[in-house]
Each structure stands twice: as structure tokens, then as C-alpha cells.
Design goal:
The protein is an alpha/beta fold. The protein has 12 helices and 13 strands. It starts with 18 loop residues before the first helix and ends with a helix. The chain binds pyridoxal-5'-phosphate.
Length: 364
């Protein structure tokens, strides 16, 4: 077969290991394994969402609404924009990939900070664009000056993950605005706000307000995180109507299933539950950060539902050590690993394992 050789550069996506796989590999009971590796919500979807999905199950012999009209109307009303400014996808990662394809191709480049969300790298390869990866600054924050300086004439897309995965760091709204202002108007700017709902920084707000002045700006969001719908796959992009209409062209028909559409509409009816989850997550995050500080483990203060930390020099050893205790965390690189904020019990168990193993991890 003549498969594109450049696709070999795409390593197989390694999601956080499933609970069942870990239990099998490490000879543990499934009920003893906790997964804090994929930035999922530890709570199930809202009961009203579960009921709406169950009620809609009898309709799935039909194709979904290809325009996701009701979901787009609900999202638009939630954000105070027009429905034709909303584009939905099977998770925001589908939309990230499609945007890469829409503006990429040989002879183009894509720019993003690093480390950041790995899909930017994969989508860039898929689109046959050249990646330009700009290191975060010493505080693990996007270095917007260095990013602007690294833009090239052939750059067609810039990703700005805010707050950033995996570091949990945030650019303030005025920093984002200044950055967007200075990117040339023929370069697509994607501000990825997958973790926006977890931000508790005083005075923070979304980049969606900038879209009106910038036809080249879109903001990506997801219902996979605080809404707890990761398994259904639905996310969206907000931009100017003409921009999203153009970007949408390469999307496969019917990619957003009907249950996901129903779930999104219902989920957005419960902002009070989102606020509650934000506070719960904040408490869990503070517990983790306090625990890390007390143990003297370097970590990056987070505005998300995860914390980036470095207990020792060996990422693989750290991740495997936790796995041996039935705690799945995410190994990144150079000793850095990431833990998702779980339930109170899960967070405490994570800290117990860390306290018990820290000496070994730090001094090897
Ligand atoms: C920064 C960022 N963007 C987007 C996503 C994609 O989420 P989904 O495809 O589930 O909407 C994730 C998921 O982990 C993420 O971390």
C-alpha cells in the first residue's frame, strides 16, 4: 500500500490508560484503580442530561441533524452570540484537526507554544504543515513575544491554549487581546479554551469578546470537561459567521451524534451546577497544590482541573510507580507529570502515594 510516508511521524495517540487495562497489567482489582490521567470530570453528567439522553435513545435509527441547529442555538444563547457563529464537532479536537486541514498543506507552517496540547502537533503533521513550537517561558506560561517573533510568512495558523494544557497556566485577557491584535490578519488564531470553566482568577474572561473585531480569530470550547460529556464527543468553535462557514467545509457529514446534541442542549440549562463544580474543582486543586507544597515537590500553580508537577527526574518511573499503586497519572517529559483533580477521596489517595514514594522518585 502507498500510505503517505509523512504520517509515520504521527505517533499513535496514547490516551491515559483505561482503568481496566491498568488493573489487568498490574494485577489489581478494577475497584482499586483510579484514573487521574485524562483531565476528565470525576462526576457523571448532570441527572437531567442523563435523562434527556435516555429519552432520546429511541431516535438513533435516524441520522443526526447535520446542522446541529438546536445545539448551536443553545450554545449561542449561552454565550450571547448568533447561532451562525457556532460550529460544533465531535469534540473540539475534531474541530482543531479540521481547522489545521482547512488552512494547512505543503508550504505552510503552524505555530504553538510547547509543551501544549498534543493535538496541535498531530493535526499539523496531518495537514502536511511544518510545526513551529515555541517554548513556554520559565514560569511555564506562553511566551507571546517569542511566539510573535517566530511567526513566518508561510504561517497560516496559531494555537493559543488558554489556560494551557498540560501546565495549567493562564494568560490574562489583555495579554490575549494584545497577542491577537499583533498576529497578521491572514493567519488563523485559535484560542483553545477547553478549560475555561475551571478558571477562578479574578477578572478573567473569555476571548470570545474579541471575535467581533477579528475575522481571523476563533475560540474553541468543549463539553468534555466540566460538563462531564467526554464520552459523547461534543465541542464547539465560536467565530465570525463567514469564518466558521469557510472552516467547516472539510468536516464529515453527521459527525456530531444526536445524543451528544441533545446532551449539550440540556447541559447548558444548568449554569448553577457548573458554578458548583468550579468551586469543587478549586477545592480539590488547592488540596493537591497544598499537598505538593508541603512535600516540597515543584509544581505549577494551576487554573484548570489538573496540576503539572515534578517529583523527580524520571517521568516514566514516576508514572509507573503511581500505576503500581493503581493511580493513573499522565507522564509528560523531563520528569514532569500531570495529575487531574479527582474526587476528594481520589485526591487524598494520590497524595498518600506521592508521600510514600517521593524519596525514591526524587533521589534516583
Ligand atoms: C487543550 C485541550 N483542547 C481540546 C481538548 C479536546 O477535548 P474534546 O475533543 O474532548 O472536546 C482537550 C482535551 O483534553 C484539551 O486538553
Amino acid at each position: 500500500m502507498r500510505i503517505r510516508p509523512d504520517l509515520r511521524e504521527i505517533p499513535p495517540y496514547r490516551p491515559g490508560k483505561s482503568i481496566v487495562d491498568v488493573a489487568r497489567e498490574w494485577g489489581l482489582d478494577v475497584s482499586d484503580v483510579i484514573k487521574l490521567a485524562s483531565n476528565e470530570c470525576p462526576l457523571p453528567p448532570f441527572p437531567e442530561v442523563q435523562a434527556a439522553v435516555a429519552a432520546a435513545a429511541g431516535t438513533i435509527h435516524r441520522y443526526p441533524d447535520n446542522d446541529a441547529r438546536e445545539a448551536r442555538e443553545a450554545i449561542a444563547a449561552h454565550l450571547g452570540v448568533e447561532p451562525d457563529q457556532i460550529w460544533v464537532g465531535a469534540g473540539s479536537s475534531e474541530l482543531l484537526r479540521i481547522m489545521a486541514l482547512a488552512v494547512g498543506g505543503p508550504g505552510t507552517s503552524a505555530l504553538y507554544g510547547w509543551p501544549s496540547f498534543v493535538i496541535y502537533r498531530l493535526a499539523t503533521t496531518l495537514a502536511m504543515s511544518e510545526p513551529i513550537e515555541v517554548p513556554l517561558d520559565d514560569a511555564m506560561v506562553h511566551d507571546t513575544e517569542a511566539m510573535l517573533a517566530a511567526l513566518r510568512d508561510d504561517t497560516t495558523i496559531v494555537y493559543l491554549c488558554n489556560p494551557n494544557n498540560p501546565t495549567g497556566t493562564l494568560l490574562a485577557p489583555d495579554q490575549v487581546a494584545r497577542f491577537v491584535d499583533r498576529v497578521p490578519s491572514d493567519v488563523l488564531v485559535v484560542v483553545d479554551e477547553a478549560y475555561h470553566e475551571y478558571v477562578t482568577a479574578e477578572g478573567h474572561h473569555s476571548a470570545i469578546g474579541l471575535v467581533g473585531d477579528h475575522p481571523n480569530l476563533v475560540v474553541a470550547r468543549t463539553l468534555s470537561k466540566i460538563y462531564g460529556l467526554a464520552g459523547l464527543r461534543i465541542g464547539y468553535v465560536v467565530g465570525q459567521a463567514e469564518t466558521v462557514a469557510e472552516l467547516r467545509r472539510p468536516q464529515a457529514p453527521f459527525s456530531v451524534n444526536s445524543l451528544a446534541q441533545v446532551a449539550a442542549v440540556e447541559a447548558l440549562r444548568h449554569p448553577e451546577r457548573v458554578a458548583e463544580r468550579r468551586q469543587l474543582n478549586r477545592a480539590g486543586r488547592e488540596l493537591l497544590e497544598r499537598g505538593l507544597a508541603e512535600l516540597g515537590v515543584p509544581y505549577v500553580p494551576s487554573q484548570t482541573n489538573f496540576v503539572f508537577f515534578r517529583p523527580g527526574p524520571d517521568t516514566a518511573l514516576t508514572a509507573d510507580t503511581f500505576l503500581g499503586h493503581g493511580v493513573v497519572i499522565r507522564g509528560l517529559s523531563k520528569g514532569w507529570v500531570r495529575v487531574t483533580v479527582g474526587s476528594d477521596e481520589e485526591n487524598r489517595r494520590f497524595l498518600e502515594v506521592l508521600a510514600a514514594e517521593l524519596d525514591r522518585l526524587a533521589h534516583r
